[in-house]
Structures are given as structure tokens and as C-alpha cells.
Amino acid sequence: MGGKQGSAGNVIAALCTVFIPGLGQLVQGRIFKALLFFVICVGGYALWFLMFPWIIALIVHLWAIIDAATYKS
What sign results for the dihedral spanned by CA atoms 67, 68, 71, 73? Predict the structure, then answer.
């Protein structure tokens, strides 16, 4: 999908990442980054009761969304 910043492909990738961290990067063909975002976010959200990992996961999740939206192939 890729393309220039703000393209339809990047918007779709960003929307995918809103629901599943890393999915947008996977759609864009960036497998390593997709796995990295997914593992960090799911691990942090799974430890929500500790507060600190949850906050880090939320920040990384937002970073993943912005990364998918601004990707330039």
C-alpha cells in the first residue's frame, strides 16, 4: 500500500493499527516493526494492573498509529 504521506493506504494502515497494534505496519509490508509494536503493546496491556507497563504500551500504540500514517515507502 505505502505511498506518500497521507495517502489512502496510510490512512487504512493507521486505522488498522488503532484496532490491533502493528497491523498497519504489517499491511505496509514491514513485518519486523509490526511484530515489535504488537508484542510491546499486547505485553503492556496485559500488565495493565501494574500501571507503568500500561502507560508505556499506550504511548507505543500511539507511536505505531502515527508511524503507519506517516510511512513513506
Answer: positive
